[in-house]
Design goal:
Layout (H helix, E strand, L loop, with lengths): L18 H6 L4 H5 L7 H9 L2 E7 L5 E7 L6 E4 L2 E7 L6 H8 L2 E7 L6 E12 H6 L15 E15 L2 H6 L4 H9 L8
Length: 195
């Protein structure tokens, strides 16, 4: 990981008040100042330790898609304080996200680390790259579990436009990482297995 932006040096993107602030109240000073135009050292370290990210895309008409991506921590490579490289591992080959990004290069990423209530959010634009670019960037297949189909097809370089940490309230509301809740769900599955 190459850290080029420190927590204090990252450029703050000032958030403008919206009609929702007029209706429900002002944003907190902390929230107002937290969105940065580059990744702080903390954000870079969080991404390097994260084994899971949800990638949100949309086509030019606003039809959305959210896709889970996973691997060993560091499977998303931090190139520098303004760029990430996310490899595409072969899957169902629907390519919904890639079709969206082909026409609309904007992407939103939500990084998670199991057991931690911290979250990192990244918004930016992408460039689709081939396997040869992944090899040039020394991105190896980094998965805990593989099958005969586990290989890189291509990837995206994300040019970071917004970067910030997100408060843990949603995780706390959901008891997402609560070990008793996880055990209960595993013992008495709340829904049947998908067919």
């Amino acid at each position: 990981m190459t850290a080029t932006a420190s927590t204090n040096a990252a450029t703050t993107i000032m958030q403008d008040a919206s009609r929702f602030n007029d209706q429900f109240g002002d944003m907190s000073p902390r929230a107002k100042d937290k969105v940065k135009g580059e990744m702080s050292e903390f954000v870079q370290a969080f991404i390097a330790a994260s084994p899971f990210v949800v990638m949100a895309t949309s086509d030019p008409d606003g039809n959305c898609d959210a896709s889970p991506k996973g691997g060993k921590p560091g499977f998303v490579k931090v190139i520098d304080g303004r760029r990430l490289l996310l490899p595409d591992v072969a899957g169902n080959r629907l390519f919904q996200s890639y079709q969206n990004m082909d026409d609309n290069p904007h992407v939103g990423l939500l990084f998670m680390i199991p057991g931690l209530n911290d979250t990192v959010r990244i918004n930016g634009t992408i460039t689709i790259v081939d396997r040869e670019e992944l090899a040039r960037e020394k991105v190896a297949l980094s998965l805990y579990w593989t099958d005969d189909n586990a290989k890189h097809l291509q990837g995206i370089i994300i040019n970071v436009e917004e970067s910030y940490t997100h408060c843990p309230r949603a995780y706390n509301f959901a008891k997402l990482w609560d070990t008793e809740q996880i055990t209960a769900n595993r013992t008495h599955r709340p829904i049947p297995l998908a067919s």
